[in-house]
Amino acid sequence: MKKIKLAILISIGAFICITTTAEAQKITAGGGVGYGSKSENVNFQVNAYYRLPTLPLRIGGDVGYSKPETDVNEFDGNFNVHFMAVDTDLISLYTITGLNVLHVRASIGSETFTDTDTGFNLGAGAEMDLGFGRGFGEAKYIVGTEREEQWVFGVGVRVSLSN
Predict the structure, then answer these.
(1) Can you tell me the distance from the alpha carbon of 42 to that of 55, in angstroms, rounded to the nearest whole number?
(2) Phi, psi angles (nearest 5°) of residue 128
(3) Nearest residue to 146 (alpha-carbon basis) of 117, 107, 121
(4) Domain total for the chain?
(5) To bridge 58 with a disulfide, which of 32, 79, 82, 134 should be the other Cys (CB 3.0-4.6 Å)?
(6) Full residue range of the structural domain in which residue 40 is found
(7) How far is the C-alpha of 38 from the C-alpha of 3, rounded, in Å?
């Protein structure tokens, strides 16, 4: 568990270093809701992405939270690469490839149990200009352990972090 926390901390630090020198219009952040086909559970998430200036790629990730049962909390994180197949001011279409980490914490009486699984996700998404930001919709399949393997659908809004 300490290795996962260290890896997440290093990833966040690297992302901050990259984004502080980047052009602001290339950085977007937002949030949304998702639904997993196997967990049958709503997930709330926040995300941030950086558009690489010379390549049709965007890198970043999201962190999500859900509470499928009274005594269970699920946290998931994704580090994704988006290949921007179409990227215009009005609409963007992209593929998603990434790493998924699922952390589950359950409390039964006075005892707490935790488990962490990793997986790989593949999917596609689209964004559309809304005037104040860009609405997005994504569908991806998570390949991993039996508990984690499922289709995940998400929608939300991202805004540019430009001045």
Answers:
(1) 34
(2) -140, 140
(3) 117
(4) 1
(5) 82
(6) 2-160
(7) 28
Number of H helices, E strands in the chain: 1, 8
Alpha-carbon distance of 67 to 41, in angstroms, equals: 8
Give the CATH number, domain containing residue 111: 2.40.160.20
- pLDDT tens-digit series, residues 97-140: 999 998 888 888 788 889 888 999 999 999 999 999 999 999 99
User: What type of residue is 115?
Assistant: D
Cα–Cα dist 45/155, whole Å: 10
CA 4, CA 101: separation in Å to the nearest integer?
A: 9
Q: How much is the pTM? A: 0.79
Query: Tokens representing 88?
Result: 């215009």
Beta-sheet pairing, 150-160 with 27-36: antiparallel
Of the candidates 161, 163, 92, 94, the residue with the CA atom closest to the CA atom of residue 129:
92
Determine the residue type at 107.
S
The pair of three-digit structure tokens given for residue 162, joined into one six-digit string:
């430009």
